[in-house]
């Protein structure tokens, strides 16, 4: 059940022209858009939507609170349109500046989410406060940055139209009420994991959202200031669950043994490239962490608002150039692989402080608990089930998954959670509860089709794509080796109540509430050309190499 509040004072005249409608969205997001578009504007006040009333009740016309509100149903986070998804082109000479402005939009959301969390009880009961203190000022600040982005692009390319319409945000609840525990695990849970994450649906309607997650409302959260001192896991007051009060909650976990097998591999055809190439780059045992994202937010410290594990290239931070990567050290056994592989850390929220408890990306962004070192990391490059692969260009950048998929919808979600011994059962929007002796597994199958020209794109996505379910790349794209990333953790099963409460969760933007669906991975190819050629030959010849 969901509540959605809209700041609809500047709803776009032609909502259908916005980039948000060009991709597959969650049911919740579609409902929000439909409800917003149906509003009659006037008075500049906060307009409430009451839709799908048979499923739940929204907000009424009174300005003091909900007409009806079932127990546990409340707004739980801020949902803003992903601006980069509406940007079709960024000229090369403005890309760095545009990425910096996009990162500023993320920081604004983080700031206003903190204000929301600090005043959540009042926000729930006073819609005027919610509008005046959160939605309207956030919209106004976003509009300033969006207009800067428009001006930057207009200097060297066609001026983007309608981008200002992405400024308004909403306050929303969670479509996962946590009551069923298992969710829709058996049929739709894998939703594209089988063959490289549903390439047929994703192809070029890919978001620019890089980081995120979400939570439901039945947890027992705690403080909001990122200080994970003595709060003992989930014993708190903020009803999003988790040690910092922004997730995860009990409804975000499911027993892996209750999930039916749902993985189907594509059939290998006569021209398939059946080989594999494995690179061993360690498990980040040397502890390289930062909260930057040099792909999505180059030149911006704390551009990710969550902490990353790094293996491979050790030069990776927000300011690293291609030359820095080319000259950097690597943790990979094969020194010809200076690629950088990074992903959000997994934490055990057990009431203990980590080194970053008072730092950006850590406690300051409500990512708390002890960072877990993987027990195993496997990085394998695989072939195509119907054709040969071609070499990846040096410095090719690939982001897989969407760290903001809780609010963006699942069009670019590529999370895949399981347990050792049960990897024929994959979860997309739940964390697994593993039986004794089994460990938690995060895995990704990266995009494996390349446009043959670009190492990056305006939204950092559309230069690469997933193959369809038969392994075929869309027109204009060619198959490249597919990075398959598998990360294993020896973490205890979650305990939701009591003095020993603890749960594991992936780092996220604070407003994404540590939802498992927000898991994602990043890769920059820095293989030397000779080793890349060896990889391609190995895969195309059907050999297993490392």
TrEMBL record:
It comes from the Bacteria. The keyword Transmembrane applies. The chain crosses the membrane at residues 32-53. Pfam families: DUF1996 (PF09362). Residues 179-190 have a biased composition (Gly residues). The keyword Membrane applies. Residues 191-208, 229-241 have a biased composition (Low complexity). Residues 158-253 are annotated as: Disordered. Residues 217-228 have a biased composition (Acidic residues). Keywords: Membrane, Transmembrane, Transmembrane helix. Residues 296-525 form the DUF1996 domain. PANTHER family: DOMAIN PROTEIN, PUTATIVE (AFU_ORTHOLOGUE AFUA_6G11970)-RELATED (PTHR43662:SF3), PTHR43662. This is Secreted protein. It comes from Streptomyces pristinaespiralis (strain ATCC 25486 / DSM 40338 / CBS 914.69 / JCM 4507 / KCC S-0507 / NBRC 13074 / NRRL 2958 / 5647). The lineage of its organism: Bacteria, Bacillati, Actinomycetota, Actinomycetes, Kitasatosporales.
């Amino acid at each position: 059940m969901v509540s959605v509040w809209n700041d609809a004072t500047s709803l776009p005249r032609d909502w259908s022209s916005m980039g948000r409608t060009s991709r597959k969205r969650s049911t919740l997001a579609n409902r929000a858009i439909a409800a917003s578009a149906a509003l009659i504007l006037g008075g500049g006040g906060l307009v409430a939507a009451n839709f799908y009333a048979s499923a739940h009740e929204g907000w009424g016309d009174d300005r003091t609170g909900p007409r009806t509100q079932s127990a546990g149903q409340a707004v739980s986070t801020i949902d803003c349109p992903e601006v980069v998804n509406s940007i079709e082109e960024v000229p090369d000479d403005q890309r760095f500046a545009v990425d910096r402005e996009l990162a500023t939009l993320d920081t604004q959301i983080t700031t206003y989410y903190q204000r929301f969390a600090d005043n959540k009880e009042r926000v729930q009961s006073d819609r005027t406060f919610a509008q005046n203190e959160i939605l309207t000022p956030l919209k106004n600040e976003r509009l300033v940055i969006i207009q800067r982005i428009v001006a930057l692009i207009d200097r060297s390319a066609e001026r983007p139209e309608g981008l200002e319409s992405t400024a308004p945000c909403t306050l929303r609840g969670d479509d996962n009420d946590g009551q069923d525990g298992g969710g829709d695990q058996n049929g739709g849970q894998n939703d594209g994991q089988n063959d490289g994450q549903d390439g047929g649906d994703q192809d070029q309607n890919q978001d620019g959202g890089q980081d995120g997650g979400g939570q439901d409302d039945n947890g027992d959260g705690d403080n909001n200031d990122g200080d994970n001192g003595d709060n003992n896991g989930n014993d708190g007051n903020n009803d999003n669950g988790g040690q910092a009060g922004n997730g995860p909650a009990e409804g975000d976990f499911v027993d892996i043994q209750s999930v039916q097998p749902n993985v189907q591999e594509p059939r290998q055809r006569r021209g398939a490239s059946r080989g594999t190439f494995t690179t061993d780059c360690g498990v980040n045992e040397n502890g390289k962490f930062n909260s930057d994202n040099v792909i999505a937010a180059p030149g911006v410290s704390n551009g990710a608002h969550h902490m990353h594990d790094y293996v491979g290239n050790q030069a990776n931070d927000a300011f690293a150039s291609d030359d820095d990567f080319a000259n950097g050290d690597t943790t990979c056994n094969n020194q010809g692989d200076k690629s950088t592989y990074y992903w959000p850390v997994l934490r055990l929220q057990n009431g203990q402080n980590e080194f970053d408890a008072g730092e950006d990306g850590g406690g300051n962004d409500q990512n708390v608990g002890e960072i877990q070192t993987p027990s195993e990391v496997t990085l394998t490059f695989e072939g195509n089930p119907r054709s040969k692969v071609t070499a990846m260009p040096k410095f090719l950048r690939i982001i897989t998954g969407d760290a903001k998929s809780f609010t963006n919808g699942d069009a670019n979600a590529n999370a895949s959670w399981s347990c050792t011994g049960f990897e024929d059962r994959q979860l997309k929007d739940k964390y697994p509860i593993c039986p004794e002796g089994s460990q938690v597994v995060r895995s990704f199958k990266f995009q494996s089709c390349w446009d043959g020209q670009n190492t990056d794109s305006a939204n950092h996505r559309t230069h690469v794509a997933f193959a369809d379910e038969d392994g075929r790349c869309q027109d204009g794209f060619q198959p490249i080796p597919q990075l398959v990333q598998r990360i294993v953790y020896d973490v205890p099963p979650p305990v939701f109540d009591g003095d020993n409460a603890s749960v594991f969760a992936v780092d996220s933007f604070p407003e994404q509430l540590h939802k498992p669906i927000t898991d994602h991975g990043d890769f920059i190819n820095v293989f030397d050309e000779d080793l890349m050629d060896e990889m391609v030959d190995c895969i195309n010849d059907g050999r297993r190499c490392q």
